[in-house]
Amino acid sequence: MAIEINPSTPTSPIPTVNGISVIWLGEWQSTKIYRRNQGVFHDGSSYRASRTTTEEPSLTALDWDLLAQGGDGAASDPSPSALNELTDVNISLPVDGQSLVYNSTTQEWVNDTITSESSGIPISEKGTPDGVATLDITGKIPDTQIPNEITRDTELNAALVSKADSSTTNSHISSTSNPHSVTASQVGNTTAQWNANWLQGRIIQSVAPTNGQILSYSTGDNRWNVVTPPAAQNLVAQWNANQLQSRSIATTAPSDGQVLTYSSANTRWEPQTISGGGGGGAGKVVQVLYGSTSTAITINSADSFTSTGLEISFTPTSLSNFLYITGVLNNPLKSSTTPFTATWISGLHLQVTSGPNVLIVPLAIDIGRLHDFRYMSPIHFATRVQVPYTASSVYRIRANIQGTSITFNTGGANNVSTMTIMEITP
């Protein structure tokens, strides 16, 4: 069945084809989405969409059904497809470069080559303000057609050069004294806006800081570096000057010649006056050495006297001097075998070894024998001996165990065992 459909005045508001209503939408547009049963006009023919589509209607299109084909009595596109189809246009054998010129006699637009004032731009309009100009073969406006009121390129370049010669430009660039007198408020701040990466003539490290970091000057780098300061409230030496190896120091002001001596009774370091060998006068501290260990050492009852891991290599200066040896063994732990009273430290002594020579200095006996618990208190020791050897010697703390076994230094790095040796003159 064929029907006639006129895009501007359809025969009915909603035509039908074989009982199917067609919704007429006029000329097909590429930017629209068309639904099923919507009709359009395209390239002289009319079509009905068979489904939702953006496809261009044609005789071979899959989404369109042909309603009426142009050229056989069907509706056709009234719009012209060429300029010569217009009633007031008469084009005859056009060539490259021609223009359409209106002929008032024939009242038609005709193609013509503009070669003179009669068919082109009037000379009176060329080179005047608000007028027109023709281009030369390079595509530029000839200088002769530019009015005097308009500045030419050559004149503009000369003016720029005269305003900014090389000496003026270089002196301006090299100036660091704010030649334009720009103020801090004009650039939105009140700081040294010209050298924000410097501080008192020293450059600042170009590293983005993180929260809490500070600027610290480095003479090695000759600049201010961004660094993280040491945290307060820790065991670093500079923050706990009133302690020594986690033991408090008495607040008593020391007098001349006194030395720090550990008091197990007061659990602190105290200034004390050290007497000479004959009891007359305070001695002089010649040297002080310090040793520590946090390595766990287990000593079994089957072992003889065994090192607790606490020792110092020391070279005294004179056999007439005295050695004051103090320290603490931390975190001794009995084996899990019960009763705990059956395990104790039967003996603790200082062993001094210098080559083949060995000196034993008893320190304590029967430590923890009557204590029915596994975790023992720290074991403090202190002794005074005359220098036995002036050669390099090893001063070692050893223990003997009864019962099962005891492990020393079980607290790890947080609870180390320590020993101090001070050499004092008589």
What does this structure look like?
Among the domains are: 1-81, Seminal Fluid Protein  PDC-109 (Domain B), CATH 2.10.10; 287-424, Jelly Rolls. The protein has 2 helices and 28 strands. Helices cover 5% and strands 35% of the residues. It is mostly beta strands and 426 residues long. Strands 3-4-5-6 form a 4-stranded mixed β-sheet, with no helix packed on it. The protein has a 4-stranded antiparallel β-sheet with strand order 18-28-21-25, with no helix packed on it. It has a 4-stranded antiparallel β-sheet with strand order 20-26-23-24, with no helix packed on it. The N and C termini lie far apart (136 Å).
Q: Mean of residue pLDDT?
A: 79
Roughly what percent helix? under 10%
Cα separation of the termini = 136 Å
The main sheet comes to:
4 strands, mixed
Annotation keywords:
Seminal Fluid Protein  PDC-109 (Domain B), Jelly Rolls, elongated
